[in-house]
Amino acid sequence: MQDAFVDQQKYTLGLQGNMEILLGAEAAEFQGCKLRKTPGIPNKVSVIDLISVVTQNKNPHQTLTDLRNAHPEGLHLTESFKFKGRGQQDTPVADARGAVVILNLLQGARAAAFRLKAADIVVRALGGDETLVSEIRANAAAQAVLPEDHPMRFFGQAVEAEQENRKRSLEDDEEIYAAKKQQLLRQISQQTIREQPLEMYPVKPDTFVVGT
To answer: Cα-Cα-Cα-Cα dihedral of 205, 207, 210, 212, to 10°?
Structure first.
């Protein structure tokens, strides 16, 4: 599986200067299909292209409208992007997670095949199938050597971006925890000093005490 998509680097530069993902044998049900993608990392793909590829519908815009009406909770993962080219308008795009959510909402044989694969992975994960570990490690090793423009990097970039966000979040949490801990220790110390009786504090020999 690893060699299958490491050796099949397939991507094209569109006539209008837009980068496209050309899916190869690693995604058999979508082999040869093209999706416009945004620049930058992680990439996002055109939701219109995705719907067209998956459903083979001639009116993907209407399909997207229907999805938004039927599943508004799933379409919040999209944003707008204007691709290069004459007459281009804002196009909804989604990252890997958003694309998978949309795939699971679409009709058609290709979407059904994808859902079956996704269901298989969920069952194996919840059932404790340890062979998934070796598959995940193989994917991680492959992601480490794939060029950034390779189709499968679409998923790797999304995972890496989320890992970086989690790392920053953990670092922020640790800083907040440390600051709150110091504040709490100071409060406890101040409260302890206020509550201690006077006899707890030794009188220095040269201190004048009223009444002696």
So the answer is: 20
